[in-house]
Amino acid sequence: MTIMVTGGAGYIGSHTCADLLAHGHDVVVVDDFSNSTPEAVDALRLVSGRDVASYRADVRDGAALGEIFAAHPIDTVIHFAAKKSVPESVQVPLDYYDVNVAGTASLVRSMTEHGVRRIVFSSSCSIYGDAHPEPLNEDDPPGPTNPYARSKLICEQLLADACVASTDLSAIALRYFNPVGAHPSGDLGEVPTGHFDNLMPRLCAVAAGQADKLQVFGTDYPTPDGSAIRDYVHVMDVAEAHRVAIDHLDDRAGMRLLNVGTGTGVSVLGLIDAFTRTCGVPVPYALAGRRPGDVASLTADPSRIAAQWGWRASRDVTQMCQDAWRFAVRHPVGYQA
Predict the structure, then answer these.
(1) CATH number of the domain at 2-183+232-261+301-313, please?
(2) Is the Cα torsion angle 209, 213, 217, 222 positive or negative in sign?
């Protein structure tokens, strides 16, 4: 198939492109490079050994999208393009609704105009909030606690409504938990630009001596060690889940929701310990207060995707740490080295 991947130069998008290319699909990357770099597409070409069509475009630009749809026989869209920082979303909520919600509406409108009826949407476990016993399953009602999570929920609702209006539209929203790790080659990984707060790249920066200490936000959560618990899932498992989702888009029309996680929660302090033991590198850290919008714990119930598709995440925390550190060592200043 020919698959448009919006946000395809970003962390999860680029790894998904690598998996798609490895399995014979053609990829068209659409990215405005606001939180990524064109060098990520070069890295993608390197690890895949294949050419990749790439366009600098904002998904809110309907004219630009129309030109891309007209230039390629696109079968399916995987939609990653979005702003994604919880703390930043609290500070600039309108930016998150503009980019995430308006961008999704623009994309679906352009898809409809060009006869593309298949989309996999990058959703988030943050939609669940902090109001349910764990593990979290797809039937738990949403309880988002920050503008980022609310924007993702609105996008899910937008897609559901679009499926009602266009009965031949098939949409799958993957609510994944906390992707970490990197491509096993060590040449494709997480290289955020601008504002970022993901734990693993900050942890690797401290381990590499690029920062003095890692800040651990929140020490008084109702968890065994007081730090927040997350379901960390290898980015290559997340990428694989998107490819498997493509294979199931034609199962039926309409909107579906599925969790992508391991089902095992690891605290922030636990991840630091696992990284130190696995990679043999100490990670100094400092304890700090909670960040606005964060929740105590998010752990998936991944049984539905396993039952429906026979798919499970297969990589453990050790492999997540090893792959993330391999990329950090090979590329200490990102894709420039």
Answers:
(1) 3.40.50.720
(2) positive
